[in-house]
Each structure stands twice: as C-alpha cells, then as structure tokens.
Amino acid sequence: MIDVEIKYKTPNYCPACNSIVETGVIFTYTYDVSYTDELQNEGTEIILSKCLNCDRPVLTEEQFRNIEEHSWINSKAQLYPVTDNIALKNAPGIVINPYKEAAKCYRAQAYDACVIMCRKGIEAICNDKGELKGNLADKLKNLKNKNVLETTLHSWANELRLIGNDGAHSHDQIVTQQDAKDSIDFFDALITYLYHLVSQYDKLKARRVK
Ligand SMILES: [Zn+2]
C-alpha cells in the first residue's frame, strides 16, 4: 500500500464506519474565491480525505468565509460516498420524511428506530398509492394485485414490514446494524422503482413513439 501524506486531521462522518471519525486530509482544492477587500474573502473548497479508521475516501465541499484571522464554514456537503437517493426529489413528502428520519436514526446508531421508520415509509407508500384501508399486510397485498408492486418488490416491502414489527414490538429479537442498513437499502430501492424508474420508463416510451 502507498502511504499518502496527511496534511491535517479533521472529524467527519464516514458511512462505512457509520460514525463521526477522525479523517486525514490528503488534498484540498480552492476555487471561486472572491475578495470583498484585502482582509475578507469567501469561496469553495473541495477536500479529499481518508477515514483513519477504515482507510476509505471521503470527498466534501465546503463554502468558507474568512474575515481577518477568523474563518467560518457556511455550508458543508458530502460529495462521496453519496448517501442521498436521487429519486427522493420525485417522491411525495409523506414518503421522503420517514426516509430521512430512517437515515438520521441509522447515523445515530438507533437501529430499532431506523427499521420502524422504514416500516412507516412503506405504509406511506401504500397511502400514496391509494391503499388507505386495512392493515399494512393487506395494503401491500392489494398493491401486488394491482401490479403496482411486482412479486419481488412486494416481498421486499413485506420484509420491511416484518423487521419494522420486530423493532416496534419484540424485546428479544435484536435489530442489528446490518438489518437496519438492509432495510434502508430496500426502502431506497422501492422509492427508486416507484417514484423514479417507472416515470423514467414512461417518458422513454413516449419519446420512442414519436
Ligand atoms: Zn471509516
């Protein structure tokens, strides 16, 4: 392995370790710098660092501001690894909110709460697709019968329902980090399919008909 030079250390969120860890900054690139006067400037910095716990790379973007010897970070975004689902912008609020809550719970290592939020998200998907009556198992079955969910997706959604039940009601069935991670991944896949790929496919078909 090639040793890279660490310029300085800074705490950062590492998705692989799922915690705030010490990261070593390897490279920084500053651009878009504007000076209001000699002593004041603001700009953007792209920072490549590595997690000092698992060695994986993290890329962040910071909007900074310097006034004399003081400096601030106005906003900070993680560019890599990407943790947000692009399909989210098309999904309704009642689905987005539990997804974001589930991600927050996961980061806080609250795995029971995370799977309960995923289950809530599945319930929200059913409501959004017009299934308002009966228990969640029935609603999912109806969506399967209406071909909104094909067999595999129905199985995933149903598993999220069961894991969510464990998180909510069981005192001896322990929800592990892996269970929580898998739940978010499947929830993510359902959102991508229902709110992104289906409409993308319809648009593709419409374009090809012309
Ligand atoms: Zn790590």
* Strand order in the largest sheet: 1-2-3-4-5
Question: Major sheet: size, sense and barrel closure?
Answer: 5 strands, antiparallel
Task: Give the SSE order as H and E letters.
Answer: EEEEEHHHHH
Structural class label: alpha+beta
How many strands? 5
Indicate the CATH topology of the largest domain: Four Helix Bundle (Hemerythrin (Met), subunit A)
Which percent range fits the helix content?
40-55%
Q: What is the average per-residue confidence, as pLDDT, rounded to a whole number?
A: 90
Unreliable residue stretches: none
CATH superfamily of the largest domain: Nucleotidyltransferases  domain 2
- List ligands, each type once: zinc ion
Radius of gyration: 22 Å
Number of helices: 5
Q: How many separate domains? A: 2
What is the straight-line distance between the termini?
A: 54 Å
Task: Please report the first level of CATH classification, the CATH class of the largest domain.
Answer: Mainly Alpha
From the 3D coordinates, which CATH architecture of the largest domain would you assign? Up-down Bundle
The gross shape turns out to be globular
Proportion of β residues? 25-35%
Molecular structure report:
- The protein has 210 residues and is α+β, with helices and mostly antiparallel strands.
- The protein folds into two domains: 8-80, no CATH class; 86-209, Up-down Bundle (Four Helix Bundle (Hemerythrin (Met), subunit A)).
- Helix content is 45%, strand content 29%.
- The chain is built from five helices and five strands; from the N terminus they run βββββααααα.
- The chain has helices spanning 93-107, 111-128, 136-145, 151-169, 177-209; strands at residues 8-14, 19-37, 40-51, 57-67, 70-80.
- It has a five-stranded antiparallel beta sheet, with no helix packed on it.
- Strand 1 and strand 2 form a beta hairpin.
- The longest helix is centred in the last third of the chain and has 33 residues, at 177-209.
- Zinc ion (ZN) binds at residues 14, 16-17, 21, 51, 53-54, 56.
- Zinc ion is lined by residues 14, 16-17, 21, 51, 53-54, 56.
